[in-house]
Amino acid sequence: MNKKKFIVPLVLLLGIAVYFVFYHKDKTLKFVPKDADAIVLIDVKKLTRQYISSFITHPSQWSGNKNKSGNKISLQDSGMKIPDFLQIFHIKNSKFSDWYSVIELKDQQKFLAYLKQQKFINKGKNTFQKNLIFIKIDEGRCILGTSNLAFVNIDRQLSQSSEKDNFNSDSFIHNALGSISFISGDRTRNFSIELNEDDIEIKNESSSEEFASIISKLEQKISFLEMELDAQNIKKYVQFFDKSISDSSQINYLKATAELEQVNDTIVSYGYDDNFNEVEKKTYQKITQPNYVIDLQSLNSEKTWKYFQDKKWINAQNQFTIIPFQPNFIEKNKAGFKIKSTRKPLQSSSNLKENYIFVKNSNLLLSSFSTLGSTEKKIISNLDYIFYGNKGMEYYIKLKAKKGDLPLILR
Question: Are 363 and 280 within 8 A, CB to CB?
Fold first, then answer.
């Protein structure tokens, strides 16, 4: 019998299987509510292909994790249905930090066992919590979020939605590993997400080369924070907190430099001795505080100063109280204002005349996050810097990891 008669159909069937497993995707987004104003999509199948490609080219990982417990439930066996597109969304008028996702369940009992293994606390009524992650199980699906405030609203919308209400992934993601999209009425702004060897890039149509020279200059600095923003960028950031601030304050330029330092903090308490006399007790602890200098320029300095005073952001000692790291001092100058920390004043760095935010990791940073778990601490410790840049309509964000033996996807 001719072996070629078997080889050709076998190769064809293998090709079809590879296509459906790694490339064919359901592009219908069934789990995004209509009142979402921001959507993050992750192409799970493209992520899988990228993982397999990296895994194959790094033989050191082929032996697997020898310390892995045989009783530990993996994510693949957790009872969740792995989607073609992971859909994460933000609800309009909710807190900036509140993000949600909905996942279908194949086996609810397996999923409950997985939550127990991950040490989620059962809060009753099919709701669970671990640190800042909340989960609600209902009708063969689970809602995950960094808050539980919108669970009822999301559940109601999904129950009442029909196929005509569903979004399509082609409206948000185009040949990228992921995307983040901002929706305002009929307008949608899409930004691609790419996972590289040792960094993550988020951008619209811009090229990373356009911001490479800025990053190169900033990498030479030792500061924890370097920031320079014009009026348009200030307005974009301030509106997350109070949309009226940027217009009312008349601020049209911001330049900031900050460094971290570990200092001794004195805690004073009072007790009583054996004779019931009040005794002062002092204890000391090390805390991390920033030293900083902030330059502000205004279209109308007098109006801005009055606005700060009306908001009670300037006290009798001319301290800018909206900054929680005290003490500091604010003073007027020809261009606007300068705010300096008084414990260890810094000098302003040179202006690059660009729009950017650059945060460089510091060994002192982790000491400020004592409540974080080991996983979160590991992520922060492996981070080298975060960069945001803007040129006209071009936006670019880079999360750079420290150099390692493995690419990010395998770490």
Answer: no
| Separation CA 283–CA 269 (nearest Å) | 8
* CB within 8 Å of 291: residues ≥ 6 apart: 258, 259, 260, 261, 341, 343, 344, 345, 346
Q: How far apart are CA 28 and CA 363, in angstroms?
A: 44
> What are the two backbone dihedrals, phi and then psi, of residue 218, each rounded to the nearest 5 degrees?
-70, -30
Helix ranges (DSSP H) in 23-140 = 44-56, 108-117
What's the pLDDT tens digit per position in 255-276? 999 999 988 877 777 777 777 7
Please report, for the chain, the start and end positions of each structural domain, with discontinuous segments joined by +: 26-56+73-188, 203-410
Q: Distance of CA 292 to CAs 85, 266, 286, 289, Å?
A: 42, 21, 19, 10
What pLDDT shows up at residue 246? Answer: 57
Instruction: Flag whether pLDDT at 190 surpasses 80.
Output: yes
CB atoms within 10 A of CB 233: 20
